[in-house]
Every structure is written in structure tokens, then in C-alpha cells.
């Protein structure tokens, strides 16, 4: 299975840190945020990774190269201007192929082992990894029912982690250009074609400088001491 890491955003919520450094290269736990993803993918046996880039793309490409330093092979999907999540995935489909792939938002940190995710069923277009609602997002995003299906309405609600298994068919037939992924997911939910996985481990939306600093301190405290 291949994976795609979303890394094309402008990082506006992280300013001023991202004025001169793209968000995926911000350091946390003694390494760039995106390297945590690459290392976890490699550990899970996922070695083919597609990364979309736009804002300060050359900095990211120069830092990671072909991925061999991290035990993976990176294919780069360039966007002249950010195409949003849906459009970015669609642009990358020639690199991803026709089989389901793992999608990871570049601005999160999570201890999920991707090998624990069940494969997509024959009728499923997506499997969303959901987490307990954090303090900054108390109302959550979606409802996960007892049968493992995800719904846009219903209680209790969980938060979308930014990690999912996706079938390329979810975006393949949309008109090219910038478009969001969320409406397509909600449409698939209404058709009963989105499954969910409740991850109860560690997860952080590294969306503000304050959360970045907090995560950095937590990870640093667990680093081996010389």
C-alpha cells in the first residue's frame, strides 16, 4: 500500500513560524514534523510515499530528497497554488495508482500503527481514523455507530484525526482544480460507504505555535538521555 502526506498548505495558523519555514519542516521532538510521519510509515512497512507540495515546496524537497535517508521512496506532487485536500489528492492520483491508499495530514502527530487499520470493504470509499474530542474542538466532527459506520449527524461525536484509508474513486471523477474533500466524504457517508476506526492513543493537531511547543516538550521528555 502507498501513502500520501498532505504538505501543500500555507500554514497560516502557525505564523510567524511559517513565514520562512514550511509547516512540515517545523521541528518537534528533535526532528521535522513530517519526518515523524515518514518514520512511522516505514515502521509499518509502507515504503512508497507521495507528498504534495506548494508553499515553499523547494525547501521541503531539498530537506527530504528522494526519501532514502528515511527508508522510503518519495514521489513529489507539485501544486502551483494549493488545490485543497480533494484537489491535491486528485492531482496526485497518477502517482498513487488505483488501489486504496493511506492519507495523512502533515500537520498532525499520532502514534497510530497503520497496520492496525482493516482494509476497505468492497462497498467502502473511506475509513476514517477518529479520536476523542480535544479541548479546542469539543463538538467533534462525526458520529461512529455500533456497526463501525461514520455519519455526519448523530451522537456521540468524535474528531477526525486527519488519517484515513481512501479509495481513489472518491475523488477521481471530480472536475480538476481546487476542491475540498469533506463534502465528498459526507456524500459517501450518506450512502453508507464510510467506515470508521476509533483510535484511543495519542494524537495532536499541531495547528498552532502553542500546541507545537507543548508537543515538543512532551516528546523531548521521552528522548533518551546521553
Written account of the structure:
By secondary structure, the protein is of the alpha/beta class. Helix content is about 25%, strand content about 25%. It has helices at about 35-45, 55-65, 85-95, 170, 180-190, 210-220, and strands at about 5, 25-30, 30, 50-55, 75-80, 100-105, 110, 125-130, 140-145, 150, 155-165, 195-200, 205. Strands 1, 4, 5, 6, 8, 9, 10, 11 and 12 form a nine-stranded mixed beta sheet that branches. It has a two-stranded antiparallel ribbon with strand order 2-3. It has a two-stranded antiparallel ribbon with strand order 7-13. A hairpin with a 2-residue loop joins strand 2 and strand 3. It is globular. It starts with a strand and ends in a 6-residue tail after the last helix. This is Nucleotidyltransferase family protein. It comes from Halomonas marinisediminis. It holds the Pfam family NTP_transferase. InterPro entries: GlmU-like, MurU, NTP_transferase_dom, Nucleotide-diphossugar_trans.
Structure in a nutshell:
Residues 2-126 form the Nucleotidyl transferase domain. With 226 residues, this protein is of the alpha/beta class. It has 6 helices and 13 strands.
Q: What is the helix fraction of residues, given as a range?
A: 25-40%
Distance between the termini: 37 Å
Average per-residue pLDDT, rounded, comes to 94
What is the count of DSSP helices, taking H or I runs of 4+ residues?
6
**What is the N-to-C order of secondary-structure elements (H for helix, E for strand)?**
EEEHEHEHEEEEEEHHEEH
Q: How much beta, percentage-wise?
A: 25-35%
Rg, Å, rounded: 17 Å
As an assembly, this protein is single chain
Largest sheet: 9 strands, mixed
Low-confidence stretches at least 5 residues in length (pLDDT < 50)?
none
What is the 3D form?
globular
Please report the total strand number as a whole number: 13
The helix-and-strand class reads alpha/beta
Domain Nucleotidyl transferase: 2-126
Keywords: Nucleotidyltransferase, Transferase
InterPro entries: GlmU-like, MurU, NTP_transferase_dom, Nucleotide-diphossugar_trans
Organism: Halomonas marinisediminis
